[in-house]
Amino acid sequence: MASIRKRGDSYLIIVSMGYDYNGNRRKAQQKTVHPPASLTPKQKEKWLNEQAVLFEMACKKAGQQVNTGITLAQYIELWLQEVAPNKLAKSTITREKQDIARILPHLGNSKLTKLRPEHFRKLYADLRKEKNTVTGKPLSENTVAGVHACLCGILSDAMEGGFLDHNPAWRTYRYTGKKKDKIITDEDTVQKLVTALEQESIKYETYFKLVIATGMRRGECCGLKWSDVDWQERSIHIQRNVVKVTGEDIIVKDTKTSSGDRYVYFSAEMESLLREYRRECEWETEAHDERSLAEDDYVFRRHGQPLPMTPTTFTWRFKLILKKHGLPEKLNVHSLRHTNASLLIANGTDVATVAGLLGHSQPSTTLDIYTHAFDKNKKAASAALHDGLEI
């Protein structure tokens, strides 16, 4: 993407030329332009953007030399060293490495510029025949979809770096089979779960009830600080996500997407529980840390440490609670988020509001995930209309 810098009465357009075959950054190309004086500010902005696009196209077309000998494995090695660390979180890179391990035995020795759509289609077909080394079952379609997404991302970066002039993996994947419905609990099971939680320690009761009440992700709930809680508005500002990668220290980072930085709201009953839990935290902090609880402290903090608890701790605890109280063991912590969304939809909340509360970047994401829940509302609305009109 070209950048534009103002230089007095002129403007400098700068185009990054990516990397050469050895991974060294190529010299950026520059061009000075002078917008016509008669243009309005809005017209000038449009004119500059057009000039930037045209100059970038000319640079990419004229200066690119592709190393026809580099293999996919060689580029991926370069990508992991030079590109990925500057654009992806550690947790994402760890996940990408799992997909790469599935890709390399099939396509690693293939020359980057010789890859064609049929190579990727065959890869996906072969992966569907492979078995998970842990469960012994065939790889899930979600795993195959993840491999495709990983490939598209890597090859897009190869384009940006000048190794390719197009992405051969685009539009080569098609989902096969039936997508599994999200695990959602009905209201009766939710009530049983709430009753069960009231028999657990106040820490776990508060955590799981917060997820049910707000639809937060596991890591988002772990990342809460007391300063994020607005008692007067009964709101919580979600602005962090906690991730634990195997072999790495716990990571506290920004929310999954920019739209994930949001506010959610809680009831008077939830406020009462939160205040009771805070008093418990104040007592523990004074007794064990010999200090007062600070607003910058994590709501769910490791005992005697300034770090937040890890999401997997709550995953493990939730399974124990389900087993102890005879509740469906197919449920998981994330299913509580789905349950929150479904209850909102069942109560007639519009899709844009649900998307905002869940932190989805687009309402279309919410529609895609919770199609069945919205369909039920549509059927109910249609039936009510027909009854009212006596059709």
Describe the structure.
This protein is mainly alpha-helical and 391 residues long. It folds into 3 domains: 3-63, no CATH class; 72-160, DNA polymerase, domain 1 (Orthogonal Bundle), CATH 1.10.150; 187-379, Intergrase catalytic core (hpI Integrase, Chain A, Orthogonal Bundle), CATH 1.10.443.10. The chain has helices at 41-63, 72-87, 90-107, 117-127, 141-160, 187-197, 202-214, 218-222, 268-289, 311-324, 333-346, 351-358, 363-369, 371-389, and strands at 3-7, 10-15, 29-33, 229-230, 235-238, 241-243, 251-253, 262-265. It has a 3-stranded antiparallel sheet, with helices on one face. Strands 4-5-8 form a 3-stranded antiparallel sheet, with no helix packed on it. The chain has a two-stranded antiparallel sheet with strand order 6-7.
* Structural Rg: 26 Å
Please write the CATH class name of the largest domain.
Answer: Mainly Alpha
Largest beta-sheet details: 3 strands, antiparallel
Just name the CATH architecture of the largest domain.
Orthogonal Bundle
* Mean model confidence by pLDDT: 84
The strands making up the biggest β-sheet line up spatially as 1-2-3
**Fraction of residues in helices?**
40-55%
For the termini, the CA-CA separation is 58 Å
Number of domains: 3
Structural class: mainly alpha
Per DSSP, the total helix count is 14
Inertia-based shape: globular
The fraction of residues in strands falls at 5-15%
Reported by name, the CATH topology of the largest domain is: hpI Integrase, Chain A
**Low-pLDDT windows of residues:** 381-391
Name the CATH homologous superfamily of the largest domain: Intergrase catalytic core
- SSE pattern: EEEHHHHHHHHEEEEEHHHHHH
Number of strands: 8
